[in-house]
Amino acid sequence: MAWTLTTDRPIYLQIIDVIKYRIISGVYKPGDRLPSVRELATEASVNPNTMQKALTELERDNLIATNRTNGKFISEDEAMIQKLKQDIAKDEIQKFLTNMQKLGFSQKETIEILEEISNNE
């Protein structure tokens, strides 16, 4: 996931989302060392303090851990990462269903469209 940051939400929350997506998609694997705060901040074009705030939140959620001498590492708790992946997937599906409902589609119609698209791939 790219660093496509917008002004509609606090930047540090968007950074958290990007890093979570990178973890659940396997870009950052369990036990991997993260780039330094400065490297990540440069990559995302944000202030290092903003990046540090995001990383602190991820550390509170136990998704990353700091080793004082070696930097920050992705959690090795694969069950927690899998649960995060499931939770994010459920949220995305709920947003999708809500949007389809706003367009006037019933859940049954939405499922039919999904099946049609799925069968064409």
UniProtKB/TrEMBL annotation:
Residues 9-77 form the HTH gntR-type domain. GO terms for molecular function: DNA binding; DNA-binding transcription factor activity. Keywords: DNA-binding, Transcription, Transcription regulation. It comes from the Bacteria. The keyword Transcription applies. It holds the Pfam family GntR. PANTHER family: GNTR-FAMILY TRANSCRIPTIONAL REGULATOR, HTH-TYPE TRANSCRIPTIONAL REPRESSOR YTRA. This is DNA-binding transcriptional regulator YhcF, GntR family. It comes from [Clostridium] polysaccharolyticum.
